[in-house]
Design brief:
There is one protein chain. This protein is of the alpha+beta class and 71 residues long. Strands 1-2 form a two-stranded antiparallel ribbon. The longest helix is centred in the last third of the chain and has 13 residues.
């Protein structure tokens, strides 16, 4: 999920996160999704905007989805 969105490619997303000292990570298994995030309190608003974009607008290519299913 952190490999980009429909409005931010992976590089842009990474720069926005790192530029504010934010951390956003996601992992998934067959039956669960875990999203972890860290930020200082004054940057929570920006973190939530980025987290919303990542969760609602992931840019997942069909080949990447197939690859992740085998991991």
């Amino acid at each position: 999920l952190t490999q980009g969105t429909t409005s931010r490619d992976a590089t842009t997303l990474s720069r926005e996160l790192e530029g504010k000292g934010l951390n956003l990570d996601a992992s998934a298994s067959e039956d669960a999704l875990e999203v972890t995030a860290t930020a200082v309190s004054e940057d929570l608003g920006e973190l939530f905007v980025l987290m919303q974009d990542v969760l609602q607008n992931p840019a997942l290519a069909p080949a990447e989805i197939a690859k992740q299913k085998t991991v």
